[in-house]
Write a structure and sequence with these properties.
five-stranded mixed sheet, five-stranded antiparallel sheet, 33% helix, 20% strand
């Protein structure tokens, strides 16, 4: 059979299959555009509610709230400060896959597929209102975004619906054939159907308009949200911290050994670790900020403004903070010079007595503007240690990432039971009557910082030259102090390290040991002893439920 004698239906069949592929791809694109519309419209509406009400932020926060402690610890350990970015990218990836699937479904089932977009809005709305600081109005961005996306997908799916050609579908003999099948279905009609029977031009116009409008809405929403943050930033720039009534003593000469690779004694603000659950860093205007102190045993409830705090007696102290998520040898520890108001003074002014002196409350619950709750023993903040409501860090107002305008700092306790950032409420209660955020997630109610040490240099798998090698690092046991640090090689005898000068018992302490290194592979280990005489244990335990233990070790290959 010659080429011109072949059944013309075969060419039309190939064309029809090509149309099905194109329509399927455009349907997936329609879903993506609808998803973009949902996010951008929600961003715009969140500007009228609050930035934390956006669907990605709300869903991300809900995921964080429900993530088991070991998984959360894994994320902090492996992604560090990027853990929240990884979570947000994961949410967006899942949303994109869901949107494409819904878009393809809407090609055959236009109404049902379009309505499925509302599932995204419902999830976002539910996540927003169920957050610890959730409000009913927080559902609005997700609801409006979902409804708008539903309408857009319905419109785009209509542009992709199958439409017979004006002359009908002609068979090989020129007669009109039946085009049975579901209305608008992919590949409806016979193999002889005209492959150019959906509204290409209408789809391109509608899709372009939807994408452009949603992008405009998203940019406008982001700009409006940024304006609120700009006001908070402006309020921070105008703050001049008063000179503290009680200054920190000068850092002793020799407290910083200044060895290459060794952490500096004072951690710069930009390098200070950040571990929290906030996907959007709160931007609080200091001018409108208020702190409420109330609860059991409070005879004189207080409400104080930021200016009220600045006018009180301020103290300045060097204090090392440690996150309970810090693995043995981990980076989540840092030392800074803090300025703030003694917390015990405020509590006494409110009529609070510690339980050791007959007080009714044994737990101080601090609340952040983002709904985080942290429980701290009342006895700990009133036992004479330098527990403060910090307003300054390393000579400047607190950075936003670290709790501006006010945060708690309590020496000797892990951050999850003491270091509430973006503070707005202090409630006196009992451990029996209330479980704070992390306690509900299987962490201990009380968590004094454990004696720990770390090798900063040489780094793991380094290749130093044979001969004298400086092994150096830091050790900490806040509110007890470091008495001794020892290093050993390949499980041998312990060697005393040289300790840097001590600033206070609430700060970490640098150390150094000069090792006569021989060629070969070696394992270095370190342990510390605190002022109570307790030697750092070698028992390797993870961070849950109240902090990791074990000796930090480093493997090196000496040339």
């Amino acid at each position: 059979m010659s080429e011109d004698q072949k059944d013309p239906r075969s060419g039309a069949g190939h064309a029809a299959r090509g149309v099905r592929v194109v329509r399927g791809a455009l349907a997936a694109l329609s879903g993506l555009i609808a998803g973009l519309v949902a996010l951008c419209v929600a961003e715009l509406v969140s500007a009228a509610v609050r930035p934390e009400a956006g669907p990605v932020t709300a869903v991300g926060g809900a995921v964080i709230d429900r993530t088991p402690a070991p998984v959360k610890d894994f994320a902090v350990r492996n992604f560090g400060n990027d853990d929240k970015l990884v979570l947000q990218l994961g949410i967006l990836a899942l949303l994109a896959l869901f949107a494409m699937a819904v878009g393809v479904a809407s090609l055959r089932y236009r109404k049902v597929g379009s309505a499925a977009v509302l599932v995204f809005g419902a999830i976002g709305a539910l996540a927003a209102v169920e957050r610890p600081d959730g409000r009913l109005s927080d559902a609005l961005p997700s609801v409006v975004g979902g409804l708008t996306a539903c309408a857009v997908l319905y419109l785009l799916a209509g542009r992709l619906a199958f439409r017979p050609s004006p002359l009908g579908d002609r068979g090989a003999d020129g007669t009109t054939e039946d085009t049975g099948g579901p209305t608008g279905a992919v590949g409806a009609g016979t193999v002889g159907a005209d492959p150019g029977t959906f509204d290409r031009r209408g789809f391109v116009i509608a899709a372009s308009a939807a994408a452009a409008a949603s992008a405009g809405a998203g940019l406008l929403g982001r700009r409006l949200n940024a304006s609120g943050a700009a006001e908070a930033a402006a309020s921070r720039r105008t703050i001049a911290l008063p000179a503290p009534a009680s200054t920190a003593r000068p850092i002793p000469a020799g407290a910083d050994l200044r060895i290459r690779g060794l952490s500096s004694f004072t951690t710069p603000n930009k390098d200070f670790y950040r571990v929290d659950t906030a996907l959007v860093v709160p931007r609080v205007d200091a001018d409108s900020w208020r702190l409420r102190i109330h609860g059991e045993g409070v005879t004189r409830p207080l409400t104080v403004s930021f200016q009220d705090l600045l006018q009180r007696k301020l103290i300045e102290r060097d204090i090392t903070l440690t996150c309970v998520s810090n693995e043995v040898g981990g980076p989540y520890v840092g030392n800074a010079r803090w300025i703030g108001v003694p917390l015990a003074d405020l509590l006494r002014e409110a009529g609070v007595k510690p339980p050791s002196k007959g007080g009714r409350a044994d737990q101080l619950v601090s609340r952040s503007v983002d709904g985080m709750t942290i429980g701290t023993p009342v006895d700990a903040v009133m036992d004479g240690r330098d527990a403060i409501l910090a307003v300054g860090m390393n000579g400047e107002p607190l950075p936003f990432d670290h709790g501006f305008p006010v945060r708690m700092v309590v020496p000797g306790l892990y951050g999850y039971v003491s270091a509430c950032k973006w503070l707005e409420d202090l409630e006196l209660t009992t451990f029996a009557g209330y479980d704070a955020y992390w306690v509900k997630r299987d962490w201990s109610r009380e968590a004094p910082i454990k004696t720990q040490s770390r090798i900063d240099t040489p780094r793991p798998f380094a290749s130093p030259k044979a001969g004298p090698v400086r092994v150096a690092g830091v050790a900490w046991a806040q509110h007890r102090g470091i008495e001794r640090v020892e290093v050993r090689v390949d499980g041998g005898e312990w060697n005393p390290a040289k300790l840097a000068a001590e600033d206070t018992e609430d700060t970490w302490r640098q150390w150094m040991w000069e090792w006569p290194a021989a060629s070969g592979n070696h394992t270095l280990e370190v342990r510390a002893t605190d002022r109570d005489g307790d030697i750092q244990t070698d028992e390797r335990v993870g961070t849950v439920p109240n902090g990791a233990t074990g000796w930090h070790s480093v493997v090196v290959a000496v040339d």
